[in-house]
Design goal:
CATH class of the largest domain: Mainly Beta
Distance between the termini: 55 Å
Strand order of the largest sheet: 1-6-2-3-4-5
Order of helices and strands: EEEEEEEEEHEEEEEEE
Structural class: mainly beta
CATH architecture of the largest domain: Roll
Strand content: over 45%
Number of domains: 3
Largest sheet: 6 strands, antiparallel
Helix content: under 10%
CATH topology of the largest domain: SH3 type barrels
């Protein structure tokens, strides 16, 4: 496997520490007075989700993790287990716990294609599009004068997730959601009824 110098450990790189894969969330190379440069790095463990900080010195090298990515089809979820299959072979099924997917699990549509990330032939997580378009299936009508909460209301989308949206959103409309934050981004399509 390729080795990375201390200065090559940058944002969105995957490295191996103690036999586990880590994603680099942030890095900053700096010098302390007359000393040699140091790379202060913020890392996220791709198996446990733990975030930590670590410094790498000029003389240090680290192994680059080989994270493989492949298309998978989302089938269904049951009691916190999310089931996926190979898009070309529906019998090749596997499950991933909700903790590996995080908040994005609320916004995956049935039969949608997402990316499965694997390390040493073991699935360790999912890569889901940041912007997802979903249909509003339940929205109470806006009540005149009901803007004390900043002009938002709670709606339910086709995946069953509930989120705050502006008052003008109606049932049947398509809205765009940021799957990383779970927040409304914009209205995409009009009423389909």
């Amino acid at each position: 496997m390729p080795m990375l110098d201390y200065s090559e450990i940058v944002l969105r790189k995957y490295i191996v520490l103690d036999g586990e894969p880590w994603e680099v969330l942030d890095s900053h190379v700096f010098r302390k007075q007359q000393r040699k440069p140091v790379n202060a790095v913020k890392l996220k463990n791709l198996i446990t989700g733990k975030v930590t900080e670590r410094s790498f010195h000029v003389s240090e090298k680290v192994e680059e993790a080989e994270i493989e990515s492949r298309d998978v089809k989302y089938l269904y979820n049951n009691r916190g287990e999310f089931w996926f299959c190979d898009p070309k072979d529906p019998s090749d099924r596997f499950e991933i716990g909700e903790s590996f997917i995080g908040i994005q699990s609320k916004f995956i549509k049935k039969d949608s294609i997402v990316q499965a990330l694997s390390f040493n032939d073991k699935v360790i997580g999912m890569k889901i599009p940041i912007k997802i378009d979903l249909k509003v299936i339940e929205a109470h009508p806006a009540v005149k004068g009901n803007t004390a909460q900043g002009g938002t209301k709670v709606v339910k989308v086709e995946t069953g997730a509930e989120l705050n949206v502006p008052m003008f959103i109606k049932e049947g409309e398509i809205i765009r959601i940021n799957s990383e934050t779970g927040e409304y981004a914009e209205r995409v399509g009009g009423n389909s009824f």
